[in-house]
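Intended use. Records like the one below are meant for learning the mapping from a protein sequence to its folded structure. Do not use them to infer anything beyond what is encoded.
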Amino acid sequence: MGNETESEPSSVPYGILENGATFADLESGDRAASSQRGTENNSYHHGEDCSVITAAAAAAAMEQVETDETRFATKRSQTEEEEEEAREDAQQRQQQQKRNQPQSVRMLSKRLVLVNLLANFLMFAIAGFITYHCFNKATVLFSWHPTFMAVGYLVLMSQAVLTLSGANLLTYQRHHKTRVLVHWLLQAVAGVLITVAFVCIVLNKIRMGKAHFQTTHGLFGLITVILTLVSIGGGVFTKYGYQLRSVVRPIYSKIMHGVAGTVTYILGSVTIGLGIYSRWFEEDNGEQVRLALLIGLIAVTLYVIINPIAATISRTKTALRTTL
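Structure written out for the chain above:
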């Protein structure tokens, strides 16, 4: 018994570890570690959610930018249309004010009225003389070609251009939309007559067994008819320019239509002038008659195109100012 050694009892109380920590502290540490892992997991999922939300917000922002750009383009087109109509209405008000101005200023207005009456007289007189010459001796298929061309270009197309430019005595007091309606109605009828006149000369050439487009008058006539149809198509595009604003800005379509229409009208007058000096017309009309018709034709042409040229220049300046 003296040889037996008894184990020395531990000096650390039960429930307390050697480092002084208790079981409660261990449990508390485990709970803290679990809470930290949970926080990390929540942070990870929260990061994923933030990424999804950020992508959705970016897509929404892009859609908003595209919507704002579309609204801006639409507003700009509406502004251009409103400016155009306001300019036309302002011109009408100016003309109305001129009639209420003193006698010295009204004399100028009377002169403009006389010029308008003279231009109308010349265009109807030239077209009437050509028509009379076509049916003076006989009525044949060829007779309808000069007649419809003269009426289509000199009368209907001239009146259509003057109506839209505000220089027509019968329509200058009307609203801009009314003048636009009258313009395209006259142009539509003119296009029909010009097409019929072209078909008549082609059929007459076939009937006579003659070659087509062998003269300067014939070549200019072919080019003029093609440009006329193109210009009429451009007029339809311009009429619905606001609905087609996604394709081209309305002011650009008006500029292109104004340039094409002016060039076409000038070519039409040149073609009629060449017809006046053709061999067919020279047979029964002397040099003085043909020279008088040519001078009248030039006067009518200059009077008709002056306002469209000024309007096209004004629109071009507006387009450049709003673009640059």
